[in-house]
Design goal:
The structure holds two protein chains of two kinds. Chain A is of the alpha/beta class. Chain A contains eight helices and nine strands. The longest helix of chain A is centred in the C-terminal third of the chain and has 19 residues, at 242-260. By secondary structure, chain B is mostly helical. In chain B, helix 3 packs parallel to helix 6, helix 3 (52-84) crosses helix 9 (204-213) and helix 6 (119-143) packs antiparallel against helix 8 (160-195). Chain A binds chain B through residues 61-63, 83, 85, 87, 89, 92-97, 106-107, 110-111, 138, 140, 154, 158, and chain B through 146-149, 151-152, 154-158, 162, 166-167, 170, 173, 246-248, 251.
């Protein structure tokens, strides 16, 4: 399943995880876990509660240190890689003392770019994605969905090689979730960024993904690895498409099986 | 309904004055001890419009301002250092908490012995009390910075120092203002008490004490009201500054 050292670039894995180990106290979450994620792929991670979905992306993104194993991004280490990370809790992830615009601009400041270039890059991103929010406002003046969109823009503005999304829509209402799915899909199509998405909503996980990774209970192993090749852009019609329904049904079956295992 | 509620506090004030009139009228207490309100307000007006009271008022303002300035200058940097190093904070926590809980007025005789009967003692005792209050709040604010926000900065590539200056400092601001507000209230209390001590020649505390000694009751009430207005005003000033600079507080 892993791409060998001689593989041609288009098929090369962008993220390579080998022998990943992580335990919280006595509870092992990952024991020698392997996975490859292809460049430009959108991977959804789905599994039973507390199986370590978020832990997986936190380990890959370097937010928590692994106990063992190796994580390479495009052959480089994490430190040498530009990543974008979107937290579930947008209220606590954005900086309330900065306007939405300054929030988006902040990582460019950390990169020590000139003010003019910072401005141009934010402007370009906002135009390209057709964002219609008053970015001169402060985060607390925006709706939940708008705030999460701002955090997604903040993650994207550095043109990350990998984008991590940790249950990005779970704090939003359904109407907003549907809208944000479309925004995110547009971002995938526009940027082709390798993306790892953790979701607790199966429909969303399948709808947004090129590939759905189903995990078992702790210690997490791969229960199934499902390709989701339906053409983009996907729409509401996709939700009733025969292939979509079949794949989602299959994922649900695997999930139910894992949940019932003791 | 809404325009009514603006006037509600006015009713409270009018009610209090009415009660005062009533108390004077039915002679609940000796009229020498409780003069009619107009006498007290007249004394307040006369005293504040170029009289002796205005001078005492500003002396108290000056001392309180020095005390809170010293407290802020010491406690804010120290609080940030302590808050950013949890081990260091745990080491000092008991000592800080102990002296924060010690009534600062109990330190007077000690400060008097060390610094003499001048202004320095009054200001320093007040600064001592206020410093510990501000310190505790700043350290607490830094320590309780939202973890997600720190992680967000870290994942964007911020160094430890940048996380401190760009996130922790700003995260601690609302709590810092809580500390400053409590600190300035405490500083005022200590300054006024200190002004009643032997060797004082001015200040609101001195005015209240002297008026009482001279049985000049309207003047004493006037000085008490001036002190009340000062305490209320200082709190208001800090609230306005907070609203202006910490616009995200509580949101």
């Amino acid at each position: 399943m892993s791409a060998g050292p001689g593989s041609p670039p288009p098929h090369a894995a962008h993220i390579t995880v080998r022998g990943l180990c992580k335990a919280f106290g006595a509870a092992a979450v990952y024991e020698r876990f392997d996975i490859d994620i292809a460049r430009g792929q959108v991977l959804s991670v789905f599994g039973p509660n507390g199986c370590g979905k978020s832990t997986l992306i936190n380990l890959i993104a370097g937010l928590i240190p692994p106990d063992g194993g190796e994580i390479l991004l495009g052959g480089k280490t994490l430190a040498a890689t530009k990543i974008g990370y979107v937290f579930q809790n947008y209220r606590e992830a954005l900086f309330p003392w900065l306007t939405a615009w300054k929030n988006i601009e902040y990582p460019l400041k950390l990169m020590k770019l000139e003010p003019r270039e910072r401005h141009e890059r934010v402007e370009r991103l906002v135009t390209r994605l057709g964002v219609q929010i008053d970015l001169a406002r402060y985060p607390y003046e925006l709706s939940g969905g708008q705030q999460q969109l701002v955090s997604i823009l903040r993650a994207l503005v550095v043109e990350p090689e990998v984008l991590f999304l940790d249950e990005p829509f779970s704090a939003l209402d359904y109407e907003m979730t549907l809208f944000m799915r479309e925004q995110l899909q547009r971002i995938f199509l526009e940027t082709r960024t390798t993306t790892v998405l953790v979701s607790h909503d199966l429909e969303e996980a399948v709808y947004l993904a090129d590939r759905v990774l189903l995990l078992t209970r702790r210690p997490a192993r791969v229960a199934d690895d499902v390709a989701m090749a339906l053409a983009r852009p996907r729409s509401d019609d996709t939700l009733s498409d025969a292939d979509f329904v079949r794949i989602k049904g299959h994922c649900l079956e695997v999930f139910q099986r894992e949940v019932r295992k003791e | 309904m809404k325009s009514d509620s603006i006037f509600l506090p006015v009713y409270g004030v009018v009610g209090l004055i009415a009660l005062w009139y009533l108390a004077v009228w039915v002679r609940v207490v000796d009229p020498v001890l409780l003069p009619p309100p107009q006498d007290a307000f007249q004394a307040l007006w006369k005293g504040m419009a170029g009289g002796r009271l205005a001078y005492d008022f500003w002396r108290t303002v000056e001392r309180t301002a020095y005390a809170i300035a010293i407290a802020a200058a010491l406690a804010i940097p120290l609080g940030i250092v302590l808050g950013a190093n949890e081990k260091l904070y745990r080491t000092c926590e008991f000592v800080i908490d102990f002296f924060r809980s010690t009534p600062a007025s109990a330190m007077f005789p000690l400060f008097l012995v060390i610094f003499g009967v001048g202004d320095t003692t009054k200001i320093l005792v007040a600064a001592f009390g206020a410093t510990l209050v501000v310190l505790f709040n700043v350290a607490y604010g830094v320590m309780n910075a939202r973890k997600t926000r720190l992680l967000a900065a870290k994942v964007m590539g911020a160094s430890r120092l940048r996380v401190l200056t760009d996130v922790m400092l700003l995260e601690s601001l609302p709590q810092t203002f809580v500390g400053l507000r409590n600190g300035v209230s405490l500083a005022l209390v200590i300054v006024v008490v200190a002004e009643m001590f032997i060797g004082s020649i001015d200040g609101l505390g001195h005015r209240v004490y002297e008026s009482q000694q001279l049985f000049a009751m309207p003047e004493m009430y006037a000085a008490i009201f001036a002190a009340g207005a000062l305490g209320y005003g200082l709190n208001l000033v800090f609230m306005l500054i907070e609203k202006r600079f910490v616009h995200w507080s509580g949101k």
